[in-house]
Amino acid sequence: MEFRQLRYFVAIVDHGSLSRAALVLHVAQPALTQQLRQLEEELGAQLLHRSAHGVVSTDAGKIFYEHAQAILKQVADARSAVVQSTTRPSGSVSLGLPHSISGALALPILSAARERYPEITLQLTEEITGSLAEQLKSGRLNLAVLFDDVPLGHFTGTPLVEEDLMFICRAGSAFAPAGPGVRLGDALGSTLILPARQHGVRPLVEQAAASAGLVLGAVLEINSLAILRSALLADLGATLLPVAPLLADIERGAMAAWPVVDPAVTRQVTLCASRNIPLTNAAAAIGKLVREVSEDLCARGAWPGARLRE
Fold first, then answer.
1. In a domain, 79, yes or no
2. φ, ψ at 150 (rounded to 5°)
3. d(CA 98, CA 118)
4. What is the separation, in whole angstroms, between the first and last Cα of the chain?
5. pLDDT of residue 210
6. Among residues of the chain, what percentage have pLDDT more than 70?
7. Do residues 48 and 190 share a domain?
């Protein structure tokens, strides 16, 4: 198997046809077809379905595509690490952020990176934490912000913040509590709108309920943050989430948030990197920047419900 075959295969999948990939790669289409055929013969599997409208990956092709992408990225990172300066890091860095935290971190990190490191191309990926952990292990991400709902033993970690989950509903809702806080048992007895179990918040809520000897009541499962927000505004229920993803609605008075007590529910937020794949200078610089941005947001009170971890 040759490195160029990986590059050719990824290009074919990305562009959806052999002819478009051949134009981008500046390779004659018959030569590209031959390299693809050799790759399939070596692997003993068909990687693509071909038709008059283009190509589509087979199941084997989808698996191979992920590995090929990771290998190409690691080679690019190795080249970048060799040539870049430690004082002026450059190159591409991929950072993964969970859906429920990107509202707090994404724009501040992008702004700080553009100002501090103009020669670094920062690529942000927004995914559920389980998917981010898998991409980090395979090398498709350089860094990822993860929670304590996934095993972190495969990674090195830099503590960022401890974040409170709050009871949030539409302003004036029938679900709104009478007091300044909400006991966990009362919150769990409400109609809750929560993500499914593969999302970081849901297992945290279930674990907190089990630890307190409580039972989670009726749940509307919505994995899209945008749809969950719409359901809250329609007063279909309340939610247990950090404030950050719904802060704009809370600040304009469309929603309200109450602290959860007896017991409180918190999550640990950690910046992670692979133990097995060394960071480039650029990735290390972005990692340090993420910590600095978190410190600044907490110091200014711009990340409500979050406290810096030492």
1. no
2. -115, 150
3. 25
4. 46
5. 92
6. 96
7. no
